[in-house]
Amino acid sequence: MADARETNERRLRRLQQMRRTGSVTQASEALGGIWKAGKKPDSIVLRTALLRADGERSRLTKLVLPRGIALRFYLLALFEAQCRLDTGDSWQNVRPLKGAESWSALVAIDGAYDTVSGAYDAALENMPPELRGSARAEERWRTRKLEDLRLRQVKGALRTLEELGHEDALVWMPRGARGQRLYEDFSLMEEGGRGDMPTPDFYTVPVRSWTAARTITLPKDFFLKGWIQVLNPSEVATWLILRWMSQWAPRKHRVSGVFLTTRPRMQAFGLRDDAWEDGCQRLLEFGLIRHAEPPEGLKAALDAIADPVITALFSQPTRVRHPYQPHFWQMTDDGLAENALQALDRELTHRRGALANAAMKRVQHDPERLAGHAPADE
Question: Which residue of 79, 165, 176, 346 sits 20 to 30 Å from the alpha carbon of 13, by its own alpha carbon?
Fold first, then answer.
C-alpha cells in the first residue's frame, strides 16, 4: 500500500507540474493545429502487427518501460503521418526535432524534479547570477531548460525505437562520418518493424481493413484531448489491446464485454499480469473502460464467438489452481472527449484520499503500530 501511495503521489505531482507549465495544453494545441491543417481524420489506423507477440513479447510490450516516451512518440508519429498523408503514401520526416512546429513541441513532460530540494526549480541553480531576480528572465530560463529536456526525451525515444532489434526496429537513423546518429534524418518503420528483408519496411499510411485481424482504429480525441500525454505506457498498451479485442469481436463487446486471462494474454500480446491488472484498474478509474455484465457462463461467452482463434484467445486456462472469474470490459470512448489532464487530476486526487483512508484503518486495527513502535516478537 505504501508503494501505491508513493506512486500515486509522484504521478499527481508530475501531473500538477504539467498543469502549471501548460505542457499538456501546449502539446495538445500543437497536435490540434496539425489535425486542422491536414486531413482531419476522425480516427488513426493502426496495424495490429504492433500488438502481436512474436515469441515472448510484442513490439508494443517492449515499449512498456518505466522511463522514456518511446511508445508515445511512435503513436504521435503515426498521428502526424495520417493527418498529413493520403492512404498508401510513404512517410518522410518534414519536422525538426526542436523549435516551432517540431517533434519536441508535440510532447508534454513535467521537467527535472530535484528529490533533495523537493522542487522543480533546481534548474535555476545554474542560472547566471546577473539574470537572477528577474521573473521574466527566470521564466525564459525554465522554458529553455524544459525545451532541452524535451529534446533529450525525443532523442531517447528514437534510440529506444531503433534498438528494439534489427527486425523489430520501428525507427532507423543514418550515421554520420564519425558514426554518430543523425537524429533529424530518422525514418519511420511500419508497425511490424523493419523486417528481415534488405529493403526496410518504411512506414506507409495503411488502408483500414474490414477485419481487426490487420488494423484497428484509435479515435482522434486520444491525441487531441491529451490522453496520449498523461497515460502511462502500460495503460496505453492495455487500452490498445482492449481496443483490438472490442473491434475484433464487436458483437460480443457490445453484448457482454470482452475478457482476457493470463495464458492467452501472454501468448498473444506478451503483456504481464501486473501491467494488465494495473492498466485496467486505472483505465476504469479514468473513465475509458467500464465493467460489463458478464454472461451467465463462460460457455455462453464463447458460443457468441464464431472465430476459433478468438475462442482460443478468450478461453480460460484448462487447469486453474483456484476458481477465477475474469473481469468483462467494454470501451467507453465517450470518456476520451473529456480533458485528460482534468480527469486524471480529479481521479488521482480521489485515489490519494482513498489510499490514505485505507492506511489509517490498518493502523487503527494495529494498536502497536498506532503507538509508533513495531510489534513485539512472539
Answer: 79
Note the pLDDT of residue 151: 95
Q: What is the pLDDT of residue 231?
A: 97
Which range among 252-261, 308-317, 358-367 shows the weakest confidence by mean pLDDT? 308-317
- Quick one: pLDDT band at residue 114, thresholds 50, 70, 90? confident
d(Cα 372, Cα 26) in Å, to the nearest integer?
A: 47
Over range 147-165, report the average pLDDT.
95
Cell 532541452, residue? 148
Cell 484448462, located at residue: 318
Count of C-beta atoms within a 10 Å radius of residue 112: 14
| C-beta separation of 253 from 293 below 8 A | no
